[in-house]
Amino acid sequence: MKSPSDESKDGLTVTPPKKWAAGVPAVVHALEYSLQQTSPRKTAVDLLTMNQVDGTDCPGCAWADPAPGHRNRNEYCENGAKHINDEATGKRVTEDFFRAHPVSDLAGRSDMWLNQQGRLTRPMVKRPDSDHYEPISWHDALNLLAEELRALDTPDEAVFYTSGRVSNEAAFVLQLFARAFGTNNLPDCSNMCHESSGYALHETLGTGKGTVSLNDLHHADLIFVVGQNPGTNHPRQLSALEEAKLNGARVIAVNTLPEAGLLRFKNPQKARGLVGQGVEIADRFLHIRAGGDLALFQGLNRLLLEAEDERPGQVLDHDFIGANTSGFEEFSEHARQISWDDVITATGLTLEEIEAVGADVLRSERVIVCWAMGVTQHKHGVPTIREIVNFLMLRGNLGRAGAGACPVRGHSNVQGDRTMGVWEQMPDAFLDALQREFGFDPPRAHGLDSVNAIRAMGEGRIKVFLGVAGNFVRAAPDSTVTEEAMRTCRLTAHISTKLNRSHTVCGRTALILPTLGRTERDVQAGGEQFVTVENSMSEVHTSRGRLKPASKLLLSEVAILCRLARRTLDGRVDLPWQEFETDYGAIRDRIARIVPGLHDLNRRVTRPGGIRLPNPVNEGVFPTAVGKALFTRNAWEMPEVPEGHLLLQTLRSHDQWNTVPYTANDRYRGIHGSRRVVLVNPEDLAELGLSAGQQVDLVGVWRDAAERRAEGFEVVAYPTSRGSAAAYYPETQVLVPLDSVADISNQPTSKAVLVRLERTV
Ligand SMILES: Nc1nc2c(c(=O)[nH]1)N[C@H]1C(S)=C(S)[C@@H](COP(=O)(O)OP(=O)(O)OC[C@H]3O[C@@H](n4cnc5c(=O)[nH]c(N)nc54)[C@H](O)[C@@H]3O)O[C@H]1N2
Ligand SMILES: Nc1nc2c(c(=O)[nH]1)N[C@H]1C(S)=C(S)[C@@H](COP(=O)(O)OP(=O)(O)OC[C@H]3O[C@@H](n4cnc5c(=O)[nH]c(N)nc54)[C@H](O)[C@@H]3O)O[C@H]1N2
Ligand SMILES: [Mo]
Fold this sequence. Notes:
By secondary structure, this protein is of the alpha/beta class. The protein contains 32 helices and 33 strands. The strands form ten sheets. A six-stranded mixed sheet has the order 6-5-18-17-16-7. It has a six-stranded mixed beta barrel with strand order 25-32-29-31-30-33. Strand 17 (491-496), helix 27 and strand 18 (509-514) form a beta-alpha-beta unit. One ligand MGD is lined by residues 163, 165, 189, 192-193, 373, 410-411, 468-472, 475, 495-498, 500, 515, 517-518, 557, 650-651, 658-660, 729, 733, 736, 750. Residues 646-752 form the Molybdopterin dinucleotide-binding domain. One of its GO terms (cellular component) is membrane.
């Protein structure tokens, strides 16, 4: 596939990767981006309210805030600042813009260009057979959408996609609307993100959420950071790791790349960080082969079992295992049989390296494992996380202070959206509660997840697609297949803040429904509103926008969804949409009656710090089918990489937010001026007969034999682990086969795409 014109293609310069993250340059870079986007005065105003009590929750990521009273005056990071200012930009996309740029023109623009045009300002419609978006009133836009929905043969011909940016209130209203309408087709970005974590944790522990708090991290003895690039994607996690280290913790980084943030951290919030050498983050760096993490944890588990044989009663936590778990004997028998040769081949590590980590574990009373996309977006994502749970359970590292499982979430409210019922397969208990509260029968058949929604569209089974935040067309794998599927819809509609590819690859009719961003004041008939969100550590708290809305014509997400629901369900299901829109407190009253742990939400959530949702594991309860935590036996196959091929991971640069690149630079990795680069280990380059600076096409290899090609990449020699390569998402989305999904979770394997590099000059 030809890439849309990308202004960033010229002038690649490569410098050595950085050995530390954050510090003064980070602050300066954020400010530079801020100043390009907004006025300095506004920047200062926005940022000082970020992540403060009664301030705006940073939409940058889901990392938790320190307890009230322990927050920095600047409780945000470089990338949070960029993200905020990207939303607070002074640039506007107007009617004139759409007059000047037909859809066919927009379709040829890069993701970066589309985003840089500024904030969307008014509802727009693209009519069938027209190449232009033209203005439409809210009244007509919502009627058009409602009429299309009402005209469907079955509610299952509609799909309602959400991205984790959406507040609890909007998410709750959306799922209520979809279910009252009659479908569970509620795919979300989580299907492509931490779905593997959800499945593995649910199955083994009976709850899909992480078990640790920030305080636990601060007081752990040993922290694993696996398949994560916190210096870029969760910079405030580095502050937590720094604090843990100052308290004596050791950190083990497991990654296919030596990421700057894993090596050394200069804390921009502290004088020491501004002038000094910073704190070394990783005590050990395991340069693992792609997809080797399951084998690593299995190896560690075997070492722990053998240590117990040598020192019976001193290594494993028999009390925990006996009282709380099931399946230990079967697991133990399996783990003892794994072959070290296989472990060493799969991980690319030496036995000594693994034994050294084993010794660290034995010395540590409190162990935490953090992980993100380098684990979940692999074929064996689910079994890998199950094996991490085995590892934690062996020494009772669950349900006590300083220990536990820490899936590090991406979008700022992705966890909250699930708590609110945005999931295509919510359990019956939730649906029963909806039924009791609202008196309609929610559909029980599971709906479509993201991958299955694309399949269904491709088969012509979906007529209406509504995207609530996000950029589905670019977030989803297999661009050619996904784009073709999207174009089969009669109507596609997106509730968005900024222009993106999903507006340009659309159904016969398409709607752009512009909305308030989280930084903006939200005033409804009942007065000024706040919303609530839930972070990666299950803390639910308020977020209040302060800025003047980007346009007078913007409606809030809640208002759009309530008005749409009213029009669509009129005469079918009678629900208090008007009341919800007037005062979001009315929505929270209902949430409080439906979601366990959120009782009395309206009163409790406004207390500084909000509410921490209880995690049963921390109360010694494991709500699995058998009422105990499960040890599991996890088999794996080595990924088959034929000679001359590499396993490509598609990842984020330092200057992008998911599908939205901000600049063509990736400072910590030393890449400047181009995103069309492929990072390959120098020894692999030599074997492939390639060298740095050459131009190549990335050619995907998959069993369906379809040609998947990403053109015009420059080779960069980089210390990726042997046999793997790295390139940026979403440019490489075209290479990820729709059917290449993680076992069980159906999550695209965006970190393991088989490719060959084809020289073009
Ligand atoms: N600034 C910024 N912040 C963000 C985002 C953003 O785009 N920009 N996105 C947000 C979202 S939605 C998410 S989900 C998170 C994503 O946060 P991350 O998971 O940190 O994101 P990725 O860039 O996908 O990086 C994956 C990491 O896993 C490593 N890796 C790849 N394969 C393997 C493997 O097989 N084993 C191991 N051990 N490591 C591997 C890669 O080298 C890389 O360091 O960040 C959130 N925060
Ligand atoms: N190849 C590959 N694919 C991946 C990944 C990968 O690592 N590799 N990562 C996956 C992951 S982890 C995720 S989470 C998904 C991300 O998938 P999405 O969440 O769908 O994508 P985003 O890029 O976050 O969406 C950006 C758009 O959201 C809209 N937006 C921003 N803020 C708001 C708001 O406040 N309200 C509303 N209504 N709209 C808003 C803007 O219009 C913007 O253009 O992508 C997945 N896809
Ligand atoms: Mo994500």
